[in-house]
Design brief:
473 residues; Rossmann fold; single chain; twelve-stranded antiparallel beta sheet; five-stranded parallel beta sheet; alpha+beta; 26% helix; 23 strands
Length: 473
């Protein structure tokens, strides 16, 4: 069921139902928690009825065209028992102590619902018509990844989305999963993993072919990585220098963003309802000076379809044009490392154009018990067993921004202990040492029961022996 209000309005009064596992029936001029009655959904019967129950009492809801029409009780009748006495395919008629309540489905042509309350068996001329108010688009919150479909809904809503988290939380991996879901029209996570995996499969071939300027069944995608030297001229439009013998020419050219925007705009004008979708992944989006790289696109990313002027005029239909249009079918997916303070932060104006989805260190993706054991040992440097701040973590930092992610503890080889020991020695341990030198970890942090400290360097061979001993113990 949807997680928002369905409202019907009549004579200034509202009837609302909040459906998120339980149904709240409310009658009144304004929402008032004291008037809410909570009903629990206990059964769904095909596409016709929802059966709801409260304190042993049952009511029936009729579902028409994906709209839910709730049955209400009037003030002072909270303890009435309602009994279904019949229906004719359009009306439900319920009885309570000599009175009747019947509900008709929503009328699609005049957007009305019909509710009636009478002391006797109801007749159609007794019905009151309730006008449906527009149902607002639910605004999802930036939440941790809970499956491709839910994050895909975020991308559809906001158009611009950034996966953020500490090192090793699969940010780029999830960005490619999401891009594959959009351009291939696929929501099955297993098939999406095959699409972005290294092994050849039909999904992987289709995703490769969809790389811009190629196209998949539903769209096209590309990926760039930002760095401190990256600028507007690399990303949007710039000057290309060409030599021809003794002469040199300077021409304004489209870069990756403008080329994708142009292709997306063409597709959108041809079919606004079922057009191809274009996805651009920007890896390490905060490593560049983002406001300078985007320029006038800061406006265009929010006001889709409205042209903005670039300082560079390019040839379009035989004429020079400075205009850039970002259409609704062009999506931006960024990734951002939250641990590195040496790279640029995203200013508030740019930040407002994006939805932020945190990807946090999680035990669930780790595929071995030794990997989980090592994950929990490292986590002790950042969090206590009940989720509080560890004494070894500086109060200036949040554990969710810096704790090494689960990919460091996922193994692919049969020799699990050896692979984990190598990953820790040559990836995790150097990272933790840098954390200590940068003041993220404090108070002489130690691992493996004090066998390995981070305040002084330790030779790789010694680190390997310590971590193998811990994993085999």
């Amino acid at each position: 069921m949807p997680d928002y209000y369905l409202k019907v309005k009549h004579s200034g009064k509202l009837l609302t139902a909040l459906e998120n596992g339980e149904i709240i029936v409310q009658w009144g001029i304004r929402p008032d928690s004291s008037q809410k009655q909570k009903w629990k959904c206990i059964e769904e019967n095909g596409n016709c009825f929802f059966i709801i129950e409260r304190d042993g009492q049952k009511l029936y809801l009729q579902k028409k065209e994906n709209q839910y029409l709730e049955l209400h009780q009037w003030t002072g009748m909270d303890n009435q028992k309602w009994t279904l006495i019949g229906h004719d395919g359009y009306y439900l008629i319920l009885n309570a102590t000599g009175g009747y309540l019947d509900v008709a489905g929503a009328s699609m042509h005049d957007r009305t619902a019909v509710l009636a309350w009478n002391a006797h068996n109801p007749h159609q001329n007794d019905h009151e018509k309730w006008q449906f108010e527009p149902i607002p688009e639910p605004i999802p919150e930036p939440i941790p990844l809970l499956g491709t479909i839910k994050v895909k809904h975020l991308l559809e809503s906001f158009k611009n989305l950034i996966f953020q988290g500490p090192p090793g939380t699969s940010k780029t991996y999830h960005a490619k999963l999401l891009a594959a879901s959009v351009v291939l029209g696929e929501d099955n996570d297993q098939k999406l993993e095959q699409a972005i995996g290294g092994k050849e499969s039909p999904e992987q071939i289709n995703f490769s072919r969809a790389r811009f300027p190629g196209k998949g069944s539903k769209g096209s995608w590309s990926i760039v990585q930002f760095h401190p030297a990256y600028n507007y001229e690399d990303f949007v439009r710039g000057i290309e220098v060409k030599g021809n013998g003794a002469t040199v020419s300077y021409n304004a050219v489209r870069r990756i963003f403008d080329r994708m925007a142009q292709a997306a705009w063409k597709a959108y004008r041809e079919d606004t309802q079922n057009c191809l979708k274009y996805v651009l992944i920007i890896d390490e989006i905060n490593r560049a000076h983002l406001a300078a790289v985007l320029g006038e696109l800061i406006y265009a990313l929010e006001y889709r379809g409205s042209p903005v002027d670039s300082p560079y005029a390019v040839q379009e239909d035989g004429e020079e044009s400075t205009q850039i249009i970002v259409p609704p079918n062009l999506y931006i997916i960024g990734t951002m490392n939250t641990a590195d303070r040496s790279i640029g932060h995203i200013d508030y104006a740019v930040r407002r154009r994006f939805a932020f989805v945190p990807l946090l260190p999680e035990e669930e993706p780790i595929d071995s018990n030794p990997g989980k054991k090592l994950f929990h040992e490292i986590a002790k440097l950042f969090k206590t067993h009940n989720g509080g701040r560890a004494e070894t973590l500086s109060p200036e930092f949040n554990a969710d921004d810096v704790q090494p992610g689960h990919t460091y503890f996922i193994t692919r080889n049969p020799e699990v202990i050896d692979e984990l020991a190598n990953k820790f020695t040559y990836q995790v341990y150097p990272l933790l040492r840098e954390y200590f030198k940068d003041g993220i970890l404090i108070n002489s942090p130690k691992l493996f029961g004090g066998a390995l400290g981070l305040d002084t360097p330790c030779p790789p061979q010694d680190v390997l022996e310590v971590v193998k001993s811990f994993l085999n113990g």
